[in-house]
Amino acid sequence: MPTEEEGKLFEDMMAFKEDVFLVCLGFSRDPSDAEDLTQDVYLRAYRNVGRIHTPYAVKEWLLRVARNTCLDHQKKKRIVRMFHERTSVSASLSGMEAPSDPAETNERLKALKQAICRLPKKLREVFVLRLYGDISYQELARTLGIKEGTVMSRLNRARKAVADSVKEELDGRKTG
């Protein structure tokens, strides 16, 4: 429950709703997405209103929250797009058709997320850092404090485990 002062700060933030929307629209280029992002910004702002220490800096703080929210949204969209692209490529290489149905794509995403979660920690961290962090083997080795060969080995085992798990999960859904 926000204090009276935090409640006042949140009321002050509402005066900048149009500015926040315009920032979100600038990042998303889609009015519908911008509306959703604006709501997300205000939810984040409400949860973190206690972090504002200088009431005169409300607008700057709120626009920073808007920027970060939009960047997070773009990152998520980029990850989904990368997944679609990689699914299409791996599907064509394995002889499977890439999903055209959004429900099937969501099933594959869910299976992928579950497969990644089931990886042992050492394999998961290499897989996630390489795939989503898009860093080189050398950078991975330095980051994790292991040899480059170990990175390659773990990454290979992780990829195989994820592919097997996703295939098994999707095959199980089709037969079940």
Q: What does this 3D model show about the protein?
A:
With 176 residues, the protein is mainly alpha-helical. The chain has two domains: 72 residues, Orthogonal Bundle (Rna Polymerase Sigma Factor, Chain: A), CATH 1.10.1740; 76 residues, Winged helix-like DNA-binding domain superfamily/Winged helix DNA-binding domain (Arc Repressor Mutant, subunit A), CATH 1.10.10. 81% of the residues lie in helices and 0% in strands. It has eight helices and no strands. Helix 2 crosses helix 3, helix 5 packs across helix 8 and helix 6 packs across helix 8. About 3% of the residues have low confidence.
Amount of beta strand:
under 5%
Radius of gyration: 21 Å
- What would CATH call the class of the largest domain? Mainly Alpha
Class derived from helix and strand content? mainly alpha
Form type: elongated
**Amino-to-carboxy terminus distance:** 47 Å
Largest sheet: none
Provide the number of structural domains. 2
Q: Return the average pLDDT rounded to an integer.
A: 81
Count the E strands: 0
Q: Helix proportion of residues, in percent? A: over 70%
